[in-house]
Design goal:
The chain has 13 helices and 14 strands. Helix content is 50%, strand content 15%. The protein has two domains: 195 residues, no CATH class; 199 residues, no CATH class. By secondary structure, the chain is α+β, with helices and mostly antiparallel strands. The relative contact order is 0.18.
Length: 436
């Protein structure tokens, strides 16, 4: 018999007892469905994060901070995630950072691998609140700058801020901001004015800086909900924030952003060099790595449960084949009497086990695709939990991720079928023919 004939015969034999076969396949289906689904979700998360990093252009982005054991610190706006938060006078929106000396700042430019012309000092301006000129609503806001290298953001409208422009410019974090500020859509917001208000720490009088909205960012896991302002606006805000401080305090830096040559230098080596001058550093990969690690822990847990289900299913395979051997004892004796060898009989029953694994895993894959496809479609509709992230697909299926799972399930099924298949191959043909 050819391999095709044996496969056809194995499938035919499985149908002799449909109920038992279906129940066994169902057990394999549950384990396979769980593993395939969690793998697809993991692929979806990783692909989305990787695309965000690629769009950000931040493979070589690095942010540096003073070590926490320094005495000096400055209070700046606390990074926010999610949509705009309304400003309340009692709100505290602050985060302490450690001062970086001018000597440390200059040493950063000499670190091998750091692109000196992209080094940006952290004299970041802060704002008490931003106020819409459309509906007069006030919101807290986190501000950020772009480095001078290849960093960029995906936009849904407008353009990036121009650090060389003399006018004040701002890039809104997401389209949630456009509606909160009173505009019907992103296009209407472009070119409009947004007030950046700083309260005088002594007189408590507000001072407003009017900035033009030049663009709106696409939703991102990297930007953290920060408004991107150009250097001109940032400098004006910083001068206002520090106007009562002595000159020595005004010159202090609290964070440094730069780019490094990631194609020729490892981030870890650069971090070690920065550590020697008293700075800690974080790359975009570090930021997204935390997100990936969170999902990986959850997904790994569900994957383990999937393999536990497969182990339980393997007991069902053993039982199914033992019953099949018992029921087909005379048939085995007849096959041996016609010259079929023990190895062929072993292979025939082992192939039945493999086919159980194959059909269970294939059906599990199809069901997983259907289930995640439906959930993904609903999640991207209005008010869906993925509406904000149109490029994030809940499940990503590839041959590279599906095929190993199917093969693994088939191997587990084969191992489970070895003992029953060996018993069938070792039966004495005379005793088998006498079996009632």
């Amino acid at each position: 018999m050819t391999v095709i004939d044996l496969i056809a015969s194995a499938n035919h034999n499985l149908l002799r007892n449909k109920t038992r076969t279906i129940l066994t396949i169902l057990a394999i289906f549950i384990g396979s469905f769980s593993i395939i689904t969690t793998t697809a979700i993991q692929n979806g998360v990783n692909d989305f994060i990787d695309s965000q990093v690629g769009a950000f252009g931040g493979e070589g982005f690095i942010q540096m901070y003073g070590k926490a054991d320094e005495d000096d610190s400055l209070t700046i706006a606390n990074p926010m995630t999610g949509g705009p938060q309304k400003y309340k006078e009692a709100d505290s929106n602050e985060l302490g950072l450690v001062a970086i000396t001018r000597e440390q700042f200059e040493k950063v430019k000499t670190v091998e691998g750091i692109k000196a012309d992209t080094v940006l000092d952290g004299k970041f301006g802060t704002v008490t609140y931003v106020e819409s000129t459309k509906n007069s609503e006030r919101y807290t806001a986190t501000l950020n700058l772009m480095t001078k290298g290849s960093i960029h953001f995906d936009l849904v409208a407008g353009q990036m801020v121009d650090n060389d422009s003399a006018e004040y410019q701002v890039l809104l974090p997401t389209d949630e901001w456009t509606t909160s500020l009173g505009y019907k859509d992103n296009d209407e917001a472009i070119g409009k004015i947004l007030k950046f208000v700083v309260l005088d720490p002594i007189t408590k009088q507000p001072k407003a800086f009017e900035a033009k909205i030049v663009g709106v960012q696409a939703p991102s896991v990297i930007s953290g909900g920060a408004m991107i302002v150009n250097s001109t606006l940032n400098s004006a805000l910083y001068d206002e924030n520090t106007k009562y401080l002595p000159e020595v305090e005004k010159e202090k830096v609290y964070t440094i952003a730069a780019e490094f040559d990631y194609e020729h230098y490892k981030a870890e080596d650069i971090k070690k060099a920065l550590d020697e001058i008293g700075l800690t550093a974080m790359t975009v990969e570090d930021i997204v790595g935390q997100i990936k690690s969170f999902f990986d822990v959850i997904i790994t847990t569900f994957t383990v449960f999937g393999y536990v289900a497969l182990l339980a299913a393997s007991i069902g395979i053993i039982n199914t084949l033992f019953m099949a051997v018992q029921e087909r004892t005379r048939e085995i004796g007849l096959m041996k009497s016609f010259g079929m060898g023990g190895n062929q009989i072993f292979f025939s029953f082992a192939l039945e086990a493999v086919m159980l694994g194959f059909w269970g895993s294939v059906l599990g894959t199809i069901a997983s695709m259907a289930a995640l496809g439906g959930i993904d479609a609903q999640a991207h509709m209005n008010d869906g939990f993925l509406q904000m992230f149109p490029t994030f697909h809940l499940g990503v299926y590839t041959i590279e991720s599906i095929l190993p799972v199917i093969l693994t399930v088939m191997i587990i099924a084969f191992v489970a079928g070895v003992v029953p298949a060996r018993r069938a191959s070792r039966k004495n043909p005379i005793d088998a023919l006498r079996y009632e």
